[in-house]
Every structure is written in C-alpha cells, then in structure tokens.
Input
Amino acid sequence: MMRAVKGTLLLVLIGGLMAGPAAGADKAKPGPGGKAFEKAMAEFRTLYREALAKDKMVGSSFRFVHGDEVLAEDLYGMANLEENKKMDPNALFHWASITKTLTGIAIMQLRDRGLLSLDDPIVKYIPGLRQVHNPYGDMGEITIRHLMTHTAGFRSATWPWKDKPWQPHEPLHFSQLEAMFPYTEIEFKPGSRWQYSNPGIVFLGRVIELLTTDDWEVYITKNIFMPLEMTRSYFDHTPYHLWKDKTRSYTVGKDGTPVPADPDVNTGITVSNGGLNAPLGDFVKYVKFLLGDPKKQDLYDTVLKRSSLEEMWRPAITLPSEPGAKTKAMMGLTFFIQETDGVRLIWHSGGQNAYASYFFIHPESGTGYVVAYNSVPESRGPREEFAYARINDFVQTRLMPLFYGK
Output
C-alpha cells in the first residue's frame, strides 16, 4: 500500500458494475457450487452495485475463480469518465502493493537456486544499510526473512515526509534511498513485532537486481510473467499499444465528486514494492498459479515449486487485532494470512494513486477471487460499511464457503 490511499486501505486491511451486467457476465458457468452458487452470485451482483453506488465509486471489475475456471465475472461503472468509456473486461488497473508478492516469489526463486538464504543479513547485499541507526543492536541482525515478514523495524513509508506538490511520486533512483540511510532509524527490535514497510520490500528488490544483474522489472517479466503468459502486464508508464485499455483513477470527495488522479504514475525505485499494472485476465493467471493445478503443475513448478509457495503461507507473526475479534490476521513471507473459524485465506491488497485492489485465495478448495477499483472514497463512516469491506465480506462468507466441501 502506498501513500495516496494508504489510510483508507489500512482501515480495511486490519479488522464493480454498470446499471446492468456486462454482456455474458450473468452467465455463471456451472461448477461445484451449482444452483446455490448461482443464487449467491445473483445476491452478490445486487450487493456489489449497491455498495459501489453508495460510495459513489467510479468503476470496478471482479472475477471468481475455481480451479482452472473463471466461474463468474462482473463489471461496474466507468473506466474513464473524461472519455465516457465504460468498464470492460480488458480494462487495465494499477495493483500497487500486490506487487510485493511478486518480489517475494522472486526471492524464493533465488533461495531455491542456492543464491541466497532467507536468514542472510540484508547488509550482506546492501552494506550501506549499516549506516542506519539501530538502537536495538547491530544492523547485521536484520535478515531477508525480517524484510519479507515486515518485522525488520523499518518505517512504513518510502518517503518519510508529508506530501508536497513538488515531490516526485516516489524516489526515482536507489541513490536517493542510500542518501537517507544515515537519517533512518530502526523503530523496534527486529523480529519483535509487525509494521508494514515499503522500503523493506524495496531493499529486497535491490537484492534481486544485484544477484541476477537484471533490472527488477526484467527479471519478473522473464521469470514470472513469461511462463504464466501474462502478456499484458507491465510496470509503471503504460506502453502505447495498451493505452486505450488503461483505466483512469479518481478520489471521490465527501460530496461524491470524482477528482482525477495522476493518469500514469512512475513508481521509480519503488517498482518492486508497488509498480504492477495488469488487466484482470492476466491477474487471474497469477491467481491460478497460486491456487495450483495438477494439469499445469509442471509449468507452475518452473516458476516456483509448490512446497516453496506453501512455505510463504506459513504464519510468521500475528498482526494486531481488536479485542474479541473473530478473525486472526497473520503475516507470512510477503503474503497475508487470514483465519476465521479454522478457514485460512491467503491474500494481499493494494492501494495507490486512487486505485484499490484485493485478491483472496483458499488453496485447499482451489477457490479465489480478485477485485479491482479505479476510485477511492474519502474516509467516511464505519470501515465495515465501506464498499471494499462489504464486498469482501459477502464473497468470503457467502460465495467461497460453497466450495469448501464441509
């Protein structure tokens, strides 16, 4: 999650459709859910439209996956208000912090190839980090594993200052981060607690570049996108041939007025932390890889073997929660873990430049969903009433359980 909508999404973290459906969207394929699934999907479509309209959201796209099938999809609203363009299945969204999971998978690839250990100190690869002030001990005690679990003690934001109109969107060069090392402080004893940290992931991206001699974007494209055939996924500025499908994003004021955000941001040196852009069709390919498929497992294992992926989903630390909370939130290796009544979901969210996105998967049943939004409402009302929260709650309590086999 990044600074433009960080506050809104963090509220949802702890704790879209036109007036009618898109052509073919209401024809949910038959699947293990049968009529119960179709009935629940009909209720979902109503809730989806209702929640997004209540928050004056501009546009959204949703897909529900079971195994190798997309059982249902839906669209809401507009992809581009200025051009009066409706949301369509090819629409490109910015996925922001979900990018972190790509960086995590790349680190595991390098671990499996014997190029690093998760318990290596980060200063082994970025010795300049020894300049960081660490009142809790030696910087050599902070490991790659700490960075992957957000327990290293680094601050949350990449830029430690308030937003200014003259600042670049994010630091454009690693030298800018290095220049801040002597003015950076470790905020708690590494490993003792959790604090979401963007710069921690940027350091992991730097390790990938140093060990492979590829730019991070090139490495991810060659080692994740190409084998998964994610041909319309890219980072930062939109290629000319995809510009027609790029959604525009908007902050929705309390009066319901949408204010356009930057149409095409450059995440700079923080690309490994939040630079991903992709249509839902490509992102579903990534979700299918995470879910696994016996028919494609040989291919998927060339990206990352299943045992290593499941290692990323083991809880490393429990996140803070409200007293008496029914759901336990935990952190794995760059993936979040949510457990409610013994049901475990793996997930991540993203928010930047007035985009918001979520994916959740239930590996045991091969079920998951992805939802993206091109607008963010200014914070108002209880968080459980936000469209994001209402939509996630319905899918997780009404749709996904139909596939759990209980």
